Sequence to fold (269 residues):
Amino acid sequence: MTNIRFDVEKRARSAIMQYAFFRWENAVILGGAILLTYFLPQPFPGWPVWGWLGLGFAGFGAMVYASLVDAESNARIVAELFKQQFNPKKLQDANLRADLETALAYQERIEAQISKQRSGLLKDRLKDTAGQIADWIKNIYRLATLLDAYAHDVLLSQERVTVPKEIQSLISRREYEQNAEIRTRLGEVVESKQKQWTSLQALDGRMKEAELQLEESLTALATIYSQIQLINVQDIESGRSERLREDIHEQVTRLNDLVASIDEVYDYV
Fold:
C-alpha cells in the first residue's frame, strides 16, 4: 500500500470514528432516553429504572456499529479526504478542474467498490490496486497543477515574444560591433539567449504532451474502473488482476516520468 493511501486511510479511520460517535442520530437517541427516564420512568409495572437508558445506550451502540461497517459512508469519507488533499478548487483553469474532479470521482467509485467486498484475498488485492490508483491521482493532480501554472504564467508568455526578438537584435549588433572583446561578450549573451529559447520550446512541447497524457490518463482510469467492477476471485487466480496492476503501474510511471521531465525543463527556463 502506498504512503499516500495509508496516510489517507489513517485520517479516514479517525474521521469515521468521529462520525460514528457524534452523528446527530446518536444525540437524539440518548436525549430521548434521558427525557423518557425523567418524564416516564416506569411505562408499565416491572420496568427497571435504568430501562430507557439501557435502550438508549443499546441504540447508541447499534448506530455506532452500523456507521463503522457502512461501506458507502466510509468510502465517501475517504473520497472527501482525497479531495481535500488534491483540491480541484486550487486550479484556476475550469477544464483542468473538471478533469481532476472526474479523476477523483472515478477513485471514489473504486473505493466504494472495494469497500463492498468481503474480507479476503480479493479485497486485499483490490486494496493494493487502490494504493496504486492513489499514486495515479497524485500524478494527475501534479500534472494538472503544472499545466495550470503554465497556462497562467505571464512571464513565460512575454518571453515567447521577447526572446526571439532579443536574439535577432543581439546578432545584428554583434555583426556591426568593431570591438573584439564586446563581440565576444555579445556572442556569449546570444548563446545564453538561444539556450533559453530552446528551453522555452522544449517546455511548450512537454506541455502539449502533458495535455494529451492527461486526457489519456482519464480514459485509462475509466477503463480501470470498469475492469475493477467485473473482477472476481477467479480473475485473481487467472492472473487478470496482476495484468490490471501492471496497467496501472505503467500509467503511474508514465505520468511520473512526464512530471519529472517538465520539472527539469522548468528549471532551465
About this structure: The CA atoms of residues 203 and 266 lie 7 Å apart. The mean pLDDT is 84.
